[in-house]
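Justification of computing resources. Each target in the renewal requires a structure prediction run like the one illustrated here; the chain below, 158 residues long, is used simply to show the kind of job we budget for.
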Amino acid sequence: MISTEGLKIIQNEVIYSQTLRYLDFGIYENSFRRNNFSGEGGLILARMLLVNESIQTLVLQDNELGEDSGEKLGSALIQNKSLTKLKIAENKIKNKGAKSILENSEKLTSLDLSKNGISPEICNDLKSLFKASKNLQELSWDSNLIGLKGIKFLVEVK
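Resulting structure tokens:
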């Protein structure tokens, strides 16, 4: 288990690494312990994305990030030029965090937003990403609260 304090300790190594391509802070299904990056952890992770120019894949599955962290990570995606795959499943980023990530994910080839409490209201942002992105090849958004209303909205392409 890594806490926000643990992230603080390793952040400079990650930020200034020129060779790191794959960074996995993810927790696997049925793990007893989880990383807890809530609060300041999202800011530290966003800072890593803003400065590091080599990370291509970032896995943050099940880290207790929350809405504000999702929003900060989404903002960091604007300036990051190397990240192509982001897995941020099971973090309760909800609509607020998902909106920020979706608005800034045009460069990603793979995005996993599964199990984040996202509701149908986010479908407009998802639809915009579909139209704007020339890179997105994989999208996972299962086990959210999209429902039939969201699916109908998504298929109404105009």
